[in-house]
C-alpha cells in the first residue's frame, strides 16, 4: 500500500511538473508572437517603404536603427542595418532588451510601452518624460498590432489541424516497400494582406 501511495505522489509531482513546463512553453510562444507582431508594426511605422538610405538623424534599415543602438547589440557594421535579416536579428535583441529593462524598472512591458521606448528611449519611459510625438507613435504601433491580431485570429482558427484526407498505398516489390500518399483534396491557399 505504501508503494502505491509513493507511486501516486511521484505521478502527481510529475504531472504538476509537466503542466508547469507546458504553461512555460505557451508563455514563451505567446511572448514570441507578441514580439513578432510588435516588431512588424514598428517596421511599418518606422520604414513602410523600406528605404535603404540614411535618415536625417542617421537612422538606417527597416527599424530605423541609429548607430549607437545598433552597436548595443552587435559587432556587425552599421551598414548591415539595411539588410533585413541582420536588422531582424538586432530588432529581436533590442526588443528583448527594452522589455527586460522595463520589467526591471517596474514598468509594464506591454506593446504601447515597448513602442514608446523604441521611439524615445527607455529612460524617458521609466522617467515619465515622453514627448507627445512618441505617444502618437506608440498608439500607431499598438493599433497596427491589434489589427494584425484581429486578422490572424480567423486564419488561426482555419489552420487547426484536421485529419488528413489521403490514401496510403503500399507496393511491395522484392527489394523493399514503396509507400505513396495520394492526396484526395486540393490544397487551400489563403491570401494574407
How does the overall form come out from the CA principal axes?
A: globular
Would you list the SSEs in sequence order as H and E?
A: HHHHHHEE
Average pLDDT, all residues: 77
Summarize the main sheet.
2 strands, antiparallel
| Gyration radius over CA | 24 Å
- Class from helix and strand fractions: mainly alpha
Q: Poorly predicted ranges (pLDDT <50, ≥5 residues)?
A: 14-30, 164-173
DSSP strand tally: 2
What is the CATH architecture term of the domain at 32-163? Orthogonal Bundle
List the strand order in the largest sheet. Answer: 1-2
For this structure, what is the CATH class of the domain at 32-163? Mainly Alpha
Tell me the β content.
5-15%
Number of helices: 6
User: In which range does the helix fraction lie?
Assistant: 55-70%
Q: Predict the CATH topology of the domain at 32-163.
A: Lysozyme
Amino acid at each position: 500500500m505504501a508503494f502505491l501511495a509513493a507511486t501516486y505522489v511521484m505521478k502527481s509531482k510529475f504531472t504538476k511538473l509537466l503542466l508547469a513546463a507546458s504553461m512555460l512553453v505557451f508563455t514563451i510562444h505567446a511572448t514570441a508572437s507578441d514580439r513578432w507582431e510588435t516588431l512588424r508594426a514598428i517596421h511599418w511605422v518606422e520604414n513602410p517603404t523600406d528605404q535603404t538610405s540614411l535618415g536625417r538623424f542617421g537612422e538606417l534599415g527597416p527599424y530605423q536603427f541609429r548607430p549607437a543602438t545598433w552597436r548595443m547589440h552587435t559587432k556587425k557594421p552599421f551598414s548591415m542595418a539595411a539588410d533585413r535579416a541582420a536588422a531582424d536579428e538586432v530588432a529581436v535583441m533590442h526588443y528583448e532588451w527594452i522589455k527586460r529593462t522595463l520589467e526591471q524598472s517596474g514598468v509594464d512591458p506591454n506593446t504601447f510601452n515597448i513602442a514608446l521606448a523604441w521611439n524615445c528611449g527607455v529612460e524617458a519611459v521609466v522617467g515619465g518624460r515622453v514627448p507627445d510625438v512618441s505617444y502618437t507613435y506608440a498608439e500607431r504601433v499598438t493599433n497596427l498590432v491589434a489589427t494584425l491580431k484581429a486578422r490572424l485570429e480567423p486564419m488561426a482558427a482555419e489552420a487547426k489541424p484536421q485529419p488528413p484526407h489521403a490514401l496510403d498505398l503500399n507496393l511491395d516489390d522484392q527489394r523493399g516497400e514503396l509507400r505513396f500518399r495520394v492526396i484526395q483534396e486540393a490544397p487551400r491557399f489563403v491570401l494574407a494582406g
